[in-house]
Amino acid sequence: KQEVTQIPAALSVPEGENLVLNCSFTDSAIYNLQWFRQDPGKGLTSLLLIQSSQREQTSGRLNASLDKSSGRSTLYIAASQPGDSATYLCAAFPPNAGNMLTFGGGTRLMVKP
Amino acid sequence: KAGVTQTPRYLIKTRGQQVTLSCSPISGHRSVSWYQQTPGQGLQFLFEYFSETQRNKGNFPGRFSGRQFSNSRSEMNVSTLELGDSALYLCASSLRTSEVGKEQFFGPGTRLTVL
User: Which residues contact B47 (CB under 8 A, 6 or more apart)?
Assistant: First the structure.
């Protein structure tokens, strides 16, 4: 059974800092991996989808990498801003499970002005 | 392009009642998935519907059921509500072709409180 873990559970950084969020998964036979952002009490906003054949995906100040062999993905946020404060979730598509996502517990990020 | 919409946004019910939640996917999306989010268990997959057929089901009791209509709109039903069913219920839609693992787009959720 696929398990997804995100460490740390919470992170506080000063504005302007570059940061890395970590995601690990137990079964390397994933299809794709998706990163989301969730603001308190809100739904999930899709940030990036990394296909299993890709190693990186970039969108603006965000860069996500995927290393299936080691079971790891990272989300790099450049020049963090207070508006980046949110919970970041990674989710893996297990094999033979359609569009089902297995989520990590999330990293709660606070960027201080 | 309108996003995923969910109604109602908030709901308060008492134990033993039943509830129906609705989800309208992004136009052109034919796959709809449902998730339950709680502080203790995080986000857990309930089921996925595509072309009015349930394609995948998570590990939830039979009290949780769903359906999808020909216009891709989906409803989720929970019968005999328990206190532990209090949660944020999220719906996601995506294109679903022969290739799976398509990008998922989530709605704002329905906050269900069971008293």
Answer: B33, B34, B54, B56, B57, B58, B64, B66
